[in-house]
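Translate sequence into structure tokens.
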Amino acid sequence: MRHALLFAAATVALAGPASAHWQYTRWGMSPEEVQAANPALRAGEDRHHSFAGSLVRLSGTYREGGRDFVVRFGFNGENRLNTVYVQPAVPRDCRRMVAAVEARLGRGTPRSQIRNILDIRVWQDSAAGNQLQLIAIGNMRAPQSCTIRYHPPEGPGEPDPPAGKPGSDI
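Result follows.
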């Protein structure tokens, strides 16, 4: 039980306001800027894990609350960060990750569900400047895999406005 509570607290940090955008990244960063923020990331295109409008160019691992996650960083056609994919390294941690996000942001809006095969849900996290999308394969009690996809609220195809423009931090 203690491990479950630690994991839940750590996973909430993955989606929390302190992670505006995602942890050490900001929407619109170049691959070089993201890699400078975490030199352990591996460079290389990964079309298998990419979605339309977001090509994965960097990947690595992230450790939080004693659990390992695979992270992939997707970039738009202008080579700017527009998506971060977070996936538990161990599939049995999917349910805990989803429960932690639900504890912070609610159940989410279902986008697609095929009983015991696929579950896609979306959350708007205005405080953190993110939209989260869950893609879970298999029964949600024990999914075969799951990924939470972070991107700007306006969608993965559009990075934040430049500094000094409405919507920026300055």
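Note: Helices lie at 2-15, 31-37, 94-105.
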